């Protein structure tokens, strides 16, 4: 096993019946943070664009405080659904968000199976639970396979990819 400290990549060779099957490069903390920042910029950019369009539409309609409160609440709920849908959809379809693709990383299951909806939802929930004080991210720095708490909960790894 080789550890490359400056980019946070760990290479492991998987051996089955004395035959090399696949070499995995587990991705570290910094690469994941950059990918997440790209995704956050995309999510927020789309949300901002939608917010501007909604504000323009409401600027030509009569002003009602009750309607404003409902629209603000609906907008908050839509943002949460957009955020959850973004990650869950990309993880379950390709294993890569646009930020992950830009950083050439992919979320894969530990047992090499398909990433299903339940795995993506558990991973996202674990990610949210891990955010306070970043306690769930510490294992990424310490684990040989660079798995955070949310990766362990969902049974996933983040690996480098050519695509």
Count of runs of 4 or more consecutive helical residues: 6
The spatial strand order of the largest sheet comes to: 1-2-3
Q: What structural class do the secondary elements suggest?
A: alpha+beta
Return residue spans where pLDDT drops below 50 for at least 5 consecutive residues: 1-7, 13-21
Number of distinct beta strands: 5
Order of helices and strands: EEEHHHEHHHE
Gross morphology: elongated
> Percentage of helical residues?
55-70%
Mean pLDDT: 86
- The number of domains is 1
**Assembly state (oligomeric):** single chain
Report Rg. Answer: 19 Å
Largest sheet: 3 strands, antiparallel
Distance between the termini: 23 Å
Query: Strand fraction band?
Result: 15-25%
How would you describe what is shown here?
- The strands form two sheets. Strands 1-2-3 form a three-stranded antiparallel beta sheet.
- It has helices at 29-60, 65-93, 98-103, 117-130, 138-142, 149-154, and strands spanning 2-4, 9-16, 19-27, 105-109, 156-160.
- 56% of the residues lie in helices and 18% in strands.
- The protein has 163 residues and is an alpha+beta fold.
- It has one domain (1-163).
Descriptive terms for the model:
single chain; 5 strands; alpha+beta; 6 helices; elongated; 3-stranded antiparallel sheet; 163 residues; 18% strand
């Amino acid at each position: 096993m080789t550890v490359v400290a400056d980019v946070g990549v760990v290479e492991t060779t998987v051996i089955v019946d004395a035959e090399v099957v696949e070499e995995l490069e587990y991705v570290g903390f910094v690469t994941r943070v950059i990918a997440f920042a790209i995704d956050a910029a995309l999510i927020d950019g789309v949300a901002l664009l939608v917010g501007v369009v909604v504000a323009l539409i409401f600027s030509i309609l009569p002003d009602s405080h009750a309607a404003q409160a409902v629209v603000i609440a609906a907008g908050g709920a839509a943002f949460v659904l957009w955020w959850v849908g973004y990650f869950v959809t990309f993880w379950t379809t390709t294993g890569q968000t646009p930020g992950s693709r830009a950083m050439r990383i992919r979320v894969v299951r530990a047992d090499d199976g398909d990433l299903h909806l339940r795995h993506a939802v558990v991973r996202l929930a674990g990610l949210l639970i891990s955010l306070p004080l970043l306690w769930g991210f510490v294992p990424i720095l310490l684990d040989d396979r660079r798995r955070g708490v949310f990766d362990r909960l969902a049974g996933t790894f983040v690996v480098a990819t050519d695509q």
